[in-house]
Amino acid sequence: MSTIHMHQTTTSTPEQYIAGLTDFGPGRSKLFGNSADEYLKVHSRGPTQADVTEGSGGIWERLHYDWSDPNHVVLKTTDSNTWGAASGRTYNFTRRPDGLTDIDVDVVRDGKRSRDISSAWCLARSARGFWRRRSRTPSRLLKPGTGGRERRA
C-alpha cells in the first residue's frame, strides 16, 4: 500500500475547490486527467455525497464522495479493477488569514495484485510532480462550469 501526501496553496476558496471536485459533468477530464468522460458514471448524488465511477486508461474505480464537512472531503474506493478497499483520497482545507487556502491531500493506493502494487509505487513518484504542475494556476482548477478556463469579471 502506498500513501502519497501532497500540499499546495491556492487562491481558490474551499467552496470553489469542492465545487470543482464534485462537478461530475462532461469535460471533467480537463480538470482531472484520470477521469475520462467515457468512464464517468454518477450512480447517485445528494447535497453532500455522491457515488461515482470514474477512471481512464483501463483503470477505473467507484468512489463514495463525502463533502459534508466543508474543510474535509473524503473519497472512499468502494470498487475498482485495480485498487483495493483501503484506497481513497482525503482533502483537508485550511483558510489562511491572507485569503489563500492550504490544501493537503492524502492519496492511499492499495493494489489488488502485485502489478497494481508496483503501479501504486510509480503513481506515488509521479503524483507530486503532477500536483505541482496543475496547481501553478490553481484558481483555474476549480471554477465550476469553466472547463478549466479562468472566469473573467
Keywords:
Alpha-D-Glucose-1,6-Bisphosphate, Chain A, domain 4; alpha+beta; 153 residues; seven-stranded antiparallel sheet; globular; 7 strands
Number of strands: 7
What's the average pLDDT? 81
Distance between the termini: 45 Å
In CATH, what is the class?
Answer: Alpha Beta
User: Which stretches are low in confidence, meaning pLDDT under 50 for 5 or more residues running?
Assistant: 124-153
Q: What general form does the structure show?
A: globular
Looking at CATH, the homologous superfamily is START domain
Give me the secondary-structure category.
alpha+beta
Describe the structure.
The structure is a single chain. The chain has 153 residues and is of the alpha+beta class. It has a single domain, classed as START domain (Alpha-D-Glucose-1,6-Bisphosphate, Chain A, domain 4), CATH 3.30.530. It has three helices and seven strands; from the N terminus they run E-H-E-E-E-E-E-E-H-H. Strands 1-7-6-5-4-3-2 form a seven-stranded antiparallel beta sheet, covered by helices on one side. Strand 2 and strand 3 form a beta hairpin. The C terminus is likely disordered.
